[in-house]
Amino acid sequence: MKIHAVVMAGGSGTRFWPLSRRARPKQFLPLAGKLPLLADTVKRLPPLAPIGRTYVVCGPIHARAVRTILPKLPKENLLVEPVARNTAPCVGLAALHVARRAPDGILAMLPADHHVARPEQFRDAIATGARIAAGGAIVTIGVTPSRPETGYGYLEVGAPLPGESAVAGGQLAPARVKRFVEKPDRAKAEEYLSDGGYLWNSGIFVFRADVILDEIQRAMPELAKRLGAIAETLGTRAYAKALAREFPACPSESIDYGVMERSSRIAVVPADFGWSDVGSFAAIPEVRAADEAGNVVSGDALVIDGKDNVVLADGGRLVAVVGATGLVVVDAGDALLVCPRERAQDVKKAVDELKRLRRDALI
Amino acid sequence: MKIHAVVMAGGSGTRFWPLSRRARPKQFLPLAGKLPLLADTVKRLPPLAPIGRTYVVCGPIHARAVRTILPKLPKENLLVEPVARNTAPCVGLAALHVARRAPDGILAMLPADHHVARPEQFRDAIATGARIAAGGAIVTIGVTPSRPETGYGYLEVGAPLPGESAVAGGQLAPARVKRFVEKPDRAKAEEYLSDGGYLWNSGIFVFRADVILDEIQRAMPELAKRLGAIAETLGTRAYAKALAREFPACPSESIDYGVMERSSRIAVVPADFGWSDVGSFAAIPEVRAADEAGNVVSGDALVIDGKDNVVLADGGRLVAVVGATGLVVVDAGDALLVCPRERAQDVKKAVDELKRLRRDALI
Known about the structure:
The structure is a homodimer.
Chain A: E1 3-8, H1 37-43, E2 54-58, H2 63-69, E3 78-80, H3 87-101, E4 106-111, E5 115-116, H4 119-134, E6 138-143, E7 154-160, E8 175-181, H5 186-195, E9 198-208, H6 209-219, H7 221-231, H8 239-246, H9 255-258, E10 266-271, E11 275-276, H10 284-287, E12 296-299, E13 301-304, E14 310-313, E15 318-322, E16 327-331, E17 335-340, H11 347-356
Helix pairs in contact in A: 3-6, 3-7, 6-7, 7-8
């Protein structure tokens, strides 16, 4: 039962501007440490999935950056989507490639831009997921919530799977999924937290190649048809052409909405491995150590009488923050951002404005 | 009755770091517009005091900068203090130079780093001050307060001078000074404002050279002795040596405390010419136009959903401020400051820390 890790690196968000740019989105930034998030993601996989069984899916403008960051990634394991079509076509394409090597091979779908504080527990959860997925289930990894977070989707845990039991530390047993829940408001989030039967939807999935292709066939026949046309060319010279023709015609849909939420074969593996989706600069304190005053700093930063600030001063000059609380200050060299932490979601507005102003060099 | 303007440019404050540095203190910065405050100060003097009757007093490390900014200033009108000794010795030295040209010549002592929004009204006030000073009074210019400012000293207005009357616009008549008041707390400041009989102490003085030298003789005999030794050498080759010997031995005292507050010859000319001492970055909105949201910006700044911010982005890169209120963000190229406006006084703490860290290039 071999696990094939599929790292989804096709994102192009703007919430980490000015560090992130079109050619260098979030997954290429060293937000949680010294390495880009993508490199961290791949590094935590062995021995579960060695580099030979690791795939990376990305867009054409990022292929070169992926090869630079992951020089040991086999050439054929870099899957380049001609255009971004959300996660369902991405999953389908990866499943085709894995199925060709092993029809019942197991895929672990991993966002390239998340953070994991405890890799060993992460691998344990994936291994458990793979064991359950081997039996035909589509497994999602559910993270035990530690706070009433309103920025994540949740899932409600159903009955434990037959023969599974709660693991050490009071974690829930692998179980059926009762329902998926969209990002809640604060009151709902607190309800979910105290209820104990809700988990964060991590966006990490584990399933057999044949099982997910079956499910796509059932739930997204249009996508299945396009994938079928690509599948015929796998390993031949016609592949590139077929991909360029079929992939852009795939429906742009998330695997969550397109398949998971409509499937009856969903199971969840509850886990707690210090997960964060690093959703914005406001999440940096979740993934980097803060000082006693709650400040997270890097580079040439000087914080005086300040607390709970995020100051990333790697732009080649001193950044001094005096008497401030809860600010994000990020220097990218050619551009600098100042923003209250609770407004970190709005950083994209700056990018929108720069687009309007046609300041392409800064986008 | 000729007016000799004496511009005091010896300041070395750190509250405008990172724009201000040791070699480039506040008076050399274009804080209120395109020109350095010193240049603005000299530019608003004619026809009251043409450049030939304008003196600038500064320290040795700033003499070159003064000459660069004021190329038309006569060489002999640049008075270089060997060391800074507060304003009393500065006033005394200037009075010696003016007295040599005209013993009863009138001096208008002007801080180099203040802002005046309405230069014509400023000149009217100085002219009135000169008229009154010609009779032997020591005149201070008192500014009609527009808000309960706690950052300024005040003076309480006494009886109107004989023959003087209130000018147009309800301004108080030139008057005796009842007392000088230190920076008040908020409650006191509001009391002064509603009382109507208090004015801001602008630090601008007008007096005859012989009168102020008399007063120094009376109130500060030690200073008078040193000045006397310098006076003997004026216009001779021995001057530089005498200055280097005597000036450092002068008591370091302000003219306010050393002379003004102990003199019985003090008069005040109330005026309202849009004055600000530009005390910190928090005062920038007093001297530069704000946009509709109250933001004052310069350079390559982008403010989104922000209000009441001061963003000086002349450091050669974009500074984007998103969702912030009441911040000061100042980019000097090699260093950048972020600070809440109400903490702008604490900018000097950053300079202290840089001194401790021996980061001389940034101080």
